[in-house]
Amino acid sequence: MTMQPAVQLRDLSPAAVRELDSSNIMHDAFEASQDEGLASRARESNRQKALVILGTAISQLPIWGFAMSYGVFQEYFSGNWTLQGSRDVTGIIGTTSNGVMYLSMPFLFALFTKHWAHWRQTAAFAGAVLAGLGFLLSSFSTHVWHLVATQGVIAALGCALMYSPMTLSLGEWFTTGNRALAYGVALSCKNISGSACPFLFRFLLEQYGLGTTMRIWTAVAAVSGAVSIFLVPAHPSSLTATETHRARRMPLHFLKHRTIYVYAIAIALQSSGYGISQTYLNTYAHDFTMLSQNSATLLLTLYNIPGILASSFFGYLADTNKRFVLSTTTVTAISAFGSALSALLFWGLTSKGNMALLAVFSITFGFFAGGYSATWGGIITDFEREAANGNEAIDSGLMYGLLNGARGVGYVSGGLASVSLLKAGTGMALSSNGHFGLESAYGPLIIFTGLSSAFGGWAVFWK
């Protein structure tokens, strides 16, 4: 067989050379355009992720601002009671609000995970309207049950309807190893709202009273809620799944595994004590420690501020980072046991007039307990790993909703238990003679908070 000689550039005609050069230039230009397109899409993706983080951060104000500051209202009612009905009932409004929000999340997360993903922003806007309606109606309350219905139920359902679709979208935009950190950043902003809002509510209540305060808050929640919802669209992958997998059944294989039950019980127990401390810290500071209203409000701010750092810190520990390799159960145990010791030692040993030790409790408990939910990104990763080992399907959004539901059970049960615990402490007639918090009427509440917080870390024993 005769080999064909290779074509040399000098053998080509000038026209052929020009054509070859033109072809090479076009090829190089095509590759350059592809690289530029990839770089452009990467920049656009990073820009969108930044907007999603910003929108999620802003949304923490209308969703959590009232619930995390309810202790200010509880303390305000102790000296400014003008409504009909028992004032003791106000103790369940804050925990009911949190409980309703968290209990509704499993259903809302399941609803908006795939099948109704394209309705997420519409649902969030509807939630903002419902929350605003609840806050507005509460400003016209004449009976205590009006507050329970409007603030504890209607507004809470609206806030949950905002939170669920936006959090689902956040998790989908950050599906890689930094998901727990993204959740941690969002929770940090939640604690920023919880740190600033107590002073805002204290000022408004003192200047304008309950009715006008709730109307102003309605306007604040409506504007910030609308802005945040615009910034958090559903991820394209969820919209594609909506079109192509409408008939797909919800994966429920996780119910066969022990892990979900261990974590659910731990979260419920931890939340029952966390909700009690949020609600009664202000009244305890005013009634037992004899602090002024401004000092009591400052304590609630000190309680929420550490969560700004703690959420990102515990989210980082629970993530797959290379510097600190800790299991998720270990991280949850650090948060749980740290908060339990803080409650039993610092809160329990606080004496009358001792603001310093109560401030230490607010900071340490706020740090350890405030960072607990930031570990959930790591918990979901454990669920995903378990499903992968068993070759099973799993829906991360549904799992996150169920964890929130467990927290709702804790808030509601803790709120109901707190009324009986406080009555039991008062009936023991210790508040007049006791020198420390554990000996006061709040003693049973403190013990319950410490023990329930400790059980929040029991998953480490099931490793």
From TrEMBL:
PANTHER family with a match to the protein in the record: MONOCARBOXYLATE TRANSPORTER, MONOCARBOXYLATE TRANSPORTER, PUTATIVE (AFU_ORTHOLOGUE AFUA_4G14260)-RELATED
Keyword Transcription regulation on entry: no
Membrane topology, as annotated: Multi-pass membrane protein
Domain of life per record: Eukaryota
Protein name according to UniProt: Major facilitator superfamily (MFS) profile domain-containing protein
Compartments it resides in: Membrane
Membrane-spanning parts: 50-72, 92-112, 124-142, 148-168, 180-204, 216-239, 260-276, 296-317, 324-349, 355-379, 400-422, 442-462
Cellular component aspect of the GO annotation: membrane
A molecular-function term among this protein's GO annotations: transmembrane transporter activity
Annotated Pfam families: MFS_1 (PF07690)
NAD as UniProt keyword: no
Naturally occurring in which organism (per UniProt): Bionectria ochroleuca
UniProt keywords, alphabetically: Membrane, Transmembrane, Transmembrane helix
Family designation: Belongs to the major facilitator superfamily. Monocarboxylate porter (TC 2.A.1.13) family.
Coiled coil segments of this chain: none
